[in-house]
Design goal:
The protein is an alpha/beta fold. The chain contains 6 helices and 6 strands, in the order ββαααββαααββ.
């Protein structure tokens, strides 16, 4: 089972009033694995299983959709595409792919790892530790590195010279 810590600043929406306005920011820290795409996929599945995301039913009769039965339904079944493209889940579920740190194309729906230069600028080290990350968790400074809505960033967190965790953060939803 994948362990996930959620630094949750994304609940800018008032679920009690059933009205979501604007994008939400989110952060997660998971155990390290060498394949960043596999880590993203496992995290998306864990968040879906936990139910900690905005579902189509949150919007009442706006979308007229059944609840998805899997995280894959949201990306692969055409009936959910309008929901995902206009409102989204306000979680990591909204990003589907990892792109290289030097990627310059369309970022919507992607996670881009920090470059070494960005790590040094943000954390003061090219191999930041959890201790380097924790003071920035939930901060505007950390989120300044996110390109825009529907995108996110990632960084490997190191412990004793070894990769230990991966932090993901970004914005999505509307």
């Amino acid at each position: 089972m994948l362990r996930c810590e959620l630094y949750d600043r994304r609940r800018k929406l008032d679920i009690a009033d059933e009205e979501a306005m604007g994008a939400s920011d989110w952060e997660y820290v998971v155990p390290y694995q060498p394949d960043l795409g596999a880590a993203l996929d496992a995290l998306r599945r864990q968040v879906f299983a936990s139910g900690e995301y905005v579902k189509p039913s949150f919007y009442g009769d706006v979308f007229h959709l059944p609840e998805p039965s899997s995280v894959d339904d949201l990306a692969e079944q055409e009936q959910y595409w309008e929901f995902m493209g206009t409102s989204g889940t306000h979680s990591i579920i909204d990003v589907l792919n990892v792109v290289p740190a030097d990627f310059t194309g369309e970022e919507f729906g992607t996670i881009r790892p920090l470059s070494d230069a960005e790590c040094a600028e943000l954390f003061g080290a090219t191999q930041p530790s959890r201790a380097d990350y924790t003071p920035l968790a939930g901060s505007e400074r950390l989120h300044e590195y996110v390109g825009g809505r529907g995108t996110g960033r990632a960084v490997v967190l190191w412990a004793h010279g070894t990769p230990a965790e991966i932090a993901f953060w970004g914005y999505s939803g509307d």
